[in-house]
Every structure is written in structure tokens, then in C-alpha cells.
């Protein structure tokens, strides 16, 4: 039986290898706990109050500003800065202090802020602006297309840079983009190597920006840690945070627990059903912030029966818009007025839109030759999106009243998109999805979703109306030089769109942030979705 | 014996290679045949046509699936599991950190399960049909049948919310690790902090691991308790035990030294197999406790059809299964000479 003893011993040795010590530690835990009031704990206390933690739902992707086209801007916008910032007051100076353009908007001159330091200590000059934008264009990754209008970039002097454009464009708006418009430290990065080497270097957990924070620890699956940059041009006040952390917490219920207990200070995307309860919680303050997202139901305009405008109009009337906002969003959002959300050019309060009117819908269906419905529609939405799922259910119930049967099919986004991009005759009839802009121009919405396409990309209603295309193509070049005229053209285009009804415009949701009571100064900018600007936060 | 032993291991390893190759082949083709567009995932939310086309080329998506399969195999031979389509990180690197996190959790929970399982098993056999036996039976049955996620949340509620003695989730407190940076040697926080003498992090990591480890241990505790109990009841009726009593040997010594030795062998097999179970159980536990391990990684990879990552996780899990089975078989042979290789 010696063998047994030996193998028990070996077996436990394997396991003990790691934890044998754990047992000893287990006993000491209690002693450490009881003697928590030691000097070291007061030291910890003082440091803890200087850290702000943002609990975020998904992993970080990349730290390279030329590539990033996803959720990692929540890091980049704290590490880097753009030339211009898009706020609720419009375009405001950021790294550029002012800008001007020639008459038709094909030449732009930006005057840069003086005395701005990169984290390396280098000064930010026109050379960095040119280098950063040219690198993004050269690499041609994710967001590079925003710079399409650029013909050339000239350095006039250290603090002045001139852009020559191929066609008129609203360059300051482009320069305020949350994606692909961050200014990088050219002197420092060009020493690292070629574009690819720079990407690799950055993704190891480095940054080369002018932002108020610098990265100190990058663990994209768990947490990212930022330390304040002492020489930030904006200066520092005593009640700002020395350290900021983005903590990855995918489970919404867990994020809720953490923010109510103060383990994290800011959390977003909490379970909607819990919001009323959270409003009563004395530990947190709820911030409701508008977003630039809109939920659309793209109707298949190439396939029976939705190729009939009357049927599309009937469906648009048969949507209980208000009930959806109340039931799906719990009232945290508003009914969409056309395709463009509030806060962006092209949103019109007085736009004639569809309202819930089931009689009118029946009448239109009869007119179209479907007096009692009698057809079946396939609706797809992105699996796991609770809100889209609820909207789908409401539509199914509502359209049943018209004699229309709806088959709901949740799919993961890539699959859903692949189906939508296949032959429209075999694709879905209705597709639910959100759109939000790369930078806040109405053209981003209207062009991507409703401009004619030879090969389907995001025009998932397969809509094609040359008159509409003509109007928005004219409007976009006038955005900067003649905004009134541009707005008028956009309005015409949108009215045309609403009459053709290639899509149902449901709602624009608000983002709800739960902020712990120990933090003030929180503000969200819809142009920089989900970003928490740590620099603006203050201790209480 | 030794030669036979070596031959047997070699045979098993060759067999394992075929098993793993089979798993890779099946998972590769299944994940590539499902209609989805990896290029769309690769380029982010609002790409241009050019970007998607470029991604197609980079990912070799324009080439026949069979060719892609051989690309994958050849890079696999170089130890390269490809690049995750969702995170753009090398899968090997992702898996390494995720695997150590999961493995640390599994080891601690198995340790807890073995200690508690054996003690409970022995005493409920000794005090058969007493209140202790009944209690441990209830514990064992609930351990096997209670849903892990529910039990984990109850523990969080009790120890975090009401008693406020243990942390809610995560591997280590962000602020603690920031003030006491941990040098990575093995990737196991408990071990690394101990080696480097970083006791603050050690205590903190230990506090973090207790709840998820107990949650994960519930199932193996049930298994081991029942197994040890039934073997012990049998062994306690043997003649040599009666002899031991007659010699007046203290009961504790009889139970744990003489009886347990003979009862433990089958229980050890259970322990080995429960390792494999905990690897799966970790999937749910990791989500509840925000443990940055394999389970969480696998769940998100599957949801987004990130096939290099899915394959990576599958390979790791397959290797772990094969390896654990091999060890279990070997231990069995070692303990019981009557079993032929």
C-alpha cells in the first residue's frame, strides 16, 4: 500500500504545487482583515480616492489611432486629441484654435494651439498633423475614408497647416471625427519603424498623444490604466483624478452591482428593467445622454410585396412608435423624426413623419391589393440585442392585425449582414439595425443607407432614387460654405425619402450612465460614443 | 514493465494526435461553412467596400476552404494559432493569459473539492445514517444538481453584499495591483505574488479566488464525497480493519491511515475526471465572477464566430481532456497492478 501513499502524495503535490501556500495564506487572511486599520490602509485610502474607474462592457481592440474603428476610442479620446471637438454647441477648438476656408470650401487653413506637448516631451506642430493624417490615409484601414476629400497637406509654419481638397467638404467636421482623426507624435513614432512596426509598438500598450492621460498598463481583456500627464496644456486642478482605469466587465448585472457598491465609478448599458430601481439608489446618479444612434427597419424594396410603396407606407403607419419607446426603452429615448437624430444638421422638428394609424394602414393595404394582408415577412435582427428583439415582437403582434405574418429570425451580425448582402430576392424582408455616424454629418446616414449602390454594402433596403442621390450629393459639398442651402437640400431629400418609405425610423435611444455619488463633472458627447473624458471628472 | 510503460505512453500520444487533428478538422469546417462573413467582423462596424476586400485577401477568404485549412494546419505546426478576428490579437497570446487564469481557478477549486470531499466522505461512511451522513448527502446532491450560476450569485449576495468580507468579482483589485505591481513569472497570481514576496497582492488575489473556486468546487465535492463514502463503507467491513480495532489503534488513524488508503483509489479517478468537468463549469463561473479566463474568451468568440479563437479554445480543451484521461489511466494502472496496460 506504499504505492497508494506515494500516488496520493504525487497527486496532491501537483495540486499543492500552486495552492499549498494558499492554505497558509487562507489562515492569514483573517488576521490581515482584522488588522485592517494599519497605517498602510490609510495610505491606500488616500490613493484610492484619486482613482476613477469606468466599467465597460467589451474588450479593447487596438491602440493605433490610424486603425481603430470600434469601441477602443474610449481609450484613444483620453490619450490623444483631434484638431476640433464636436460638442452640443457645435464645433469647438481642440488642438486647433481656429480655422478658415476659401469661398467654395476647397482650401482650409488650421491654426494650431501653441505650447502643446506630447507625452514624449516633443512639441506638437504642423508636421505632426500632416504626418498623422497622411499615415492614416496611407494605411487605408477602417476609418481612413473620412479623409477622402484631401488632395494635399501643406505646412505653412510650425503652427499653421493648409489642406487642399479635391472637392468642397466640411473639413473641421471631419477633423473632429472620433475615429481616425487623432494627432500623433511624428518625431517619436517615425523612429520606431514603418507603419506596421508602429502599430505593433502601440498595441503593446504605448501611446504617443497629447491627451491629458498617458497609458501605463494595457491588458485589453481585463483593464487599461491611465496616469495623468503632468505637462498637459490644459493644466491640472487639485480635484481631478491622477489615475483612471477602464475595467472590462461584460456582464450587465455585474456592472450594476459594481457601480452601486462603488467598485467602479461609471457604468453604462445596465439592465433596462433595473433603471427605475437604480433611480432610487442614493449611491449613484443616473445621467441620461442622447446618442447619435437610430434604430431602423430596412424594408426590402426589391422583393414582393415590399417593392410596393403603398405596402411600405402601410407598414410605416402600423407601428406604435410611442409604445415602442415606452416599452422597449422604458421611455429613455425619443421617437425618430426621419433618419437623422437630434444634434446633427438634417434633424427637423417639423418634419412630417408617420404616426400610428392602423386604419390608414389597412386602407393603404387595400389600395395596394392586399385587403386582408395574407403575406408573410421575414424579419432579421442582431442576436443578443434585447431592444431589437422586443421591437420585433411588437411588430409581429401589431402586423398580425393587418393579416401579415412575421417570422422573426435573430442572427449574429456577420451572418445577418451576409444574408442582407446576398441576392435581395432571397434576402430578408425587414432588417433591424442601428446606424451611427463616423463623424456627425447627415451625409453619413443618408449616403450609407439610402444612396444607390452597385454592390450592396449598407443600403440594406436596396433603395435607389437618382433624385435623392442628386440632392444629398449637392448638399454635402455645401455643408461648410453654405450651410443654409445644404440644410434645405437635405430637407428635400429626407422628405422624398419619407414619402418613398424604404425604411421605418423607430427611435433614437439615450445612453444611461450610472455615476457613483463620489464623482461629479460627468458629461457625455454623442459624437464620441461611450467615451468618458476622465479629464472633466472631479472628486466630491 | 518500464518498456511497456513507455510504449503505452507513446501509443496514447500518437492516438491523441489523431483525436486532436480530428477535432480541429471538424471544428474548422463547421465554423467555416456556417454562413457568416469573417471579413465583416475583422474591419469593424462601418467599413468601406475596399476595406472589406482588403480584409478578404489578408485573411485568405477568397481562396477555397480546403486551402485555408492547410494554411491553418501549417501555421499550427509552427505553434501559431492565427490571429483573432474579433480582437486582432494573436490567439496564442490570448489563450496563454486566459488559460493560466482558468487553470489557477480550477486548481484551487479542485484542491477545495478534494479536501472537503474526502473529509465529508470519510465521516459520513464512519457515521453512516447519522445526521452528519444525511447532511453531507444533501450537500453532495445539491452540489451536483444546483445550477452553478445561481449558487455563485447567492455566494456573491451573502459574502459581498451582506457580510462585505469578500470582493464581488475579478482576479485582483485594480487599485491594489496598481500600487503593488506584480511581476509575471508563471501567470498564476497566487504563485507569482508568493515568489516575489508581494503579500498584499497575494492576500487580495486569494480573497478574489475564494468565491469562484467554491462555486466551481460544488460539483466535484458532491462526486468525491459520494465516491469516498461508498468505498469507505466497503473497506471498513474488511477483516484488517477489525484487526486494527482489536489492536486498539486510535480511530482517526484507522480511518485516515488504514481505511482511506484502500478507499481512495477509485475516488482519485473521480477527481481526475472532475478536472475535465470544471474546465466546462468554468465557462459559467467565469462570466459571473468576471474571471478573465478561457470560458469568457470562448463564449465571446463563439458569439461572434471568431473561428481562429474558437479553434484555439477547442484545441486547448481537447489537449486538456486527452491529457487528463491519460493521467487518470496511468494512475489507475500504477495503483492497481491487476489492471493490464
From TrEMBL, chain A:
InterPro entries: Peptide/Ni-bd, SBP_5, SBP_5_CS, SBP_5_dom. The keyword Signal applies. It comes from the Archaea. Keywords: Signal, Transport. One of its GO terms (biological process) is peptide transport. Gene3D superfamilies: Dipeptide-binding Protein, Domain 1, Dipeptide-binding Protein, Domain 3, Periplasmic binding protein-like II. Residues 91-454 form the Solute-binding protein family domain. The keyword Signal applies. GO terms for molecular function: peptide transmembrane transporter activity. Transmembrane segments: none annotated. Pfam families: SBP_bac_5. GO terms for cellular component: ATP-binding cassette (ABC) transporter complex; periplasmic space. Belongs to the bacterial solute-binding protein 5 family. This is ABC transporter substrate-binding protein. It comes from Thermococcus litoralis (strain ATCC 51850 / DSM 5473 / JCM 8560 / NS-C).
From TrEMBL, chain B:
PROSITE patterns: ABC_TM1. The chain crosses the membrane at residues 12-34, 105-126, 138-159, 199-222, 263-289, 309-335. GO terms for molecular function: dipeptide transmembrane transporter activity. Residues 99-332 form the ABC transmembrane type-1 domain. Keywords: Cell membrane, Membrane, Transmembrane, Transmembrane helix, Transport. Signal peptide: none annotated. It is a multi-pass membrane protein. The keyword Cell membrane applies. GO terms for cellular component: plasma membrane. Gene3D superfamilies: MetI-like (1.10.3720.10). It is found in: Cell membrane. It comes from the Archaea. Its main location: membrane. InterPro entries: BPD_transp_1_N, MetI-like, MetI-like_sf. Belongs to the binding-protein-dependent transport system permease family. PANTHER family: DIPEPTIDE TRANSPORT SYSTEM PERMEASE PROTEIN DPPB-RELATED. This is Peptide ABC transporter permease. It comes from Thermococcus litoralis (strain ATCC 51850 / DSM 5473 / JCM 8560 / NS-C).
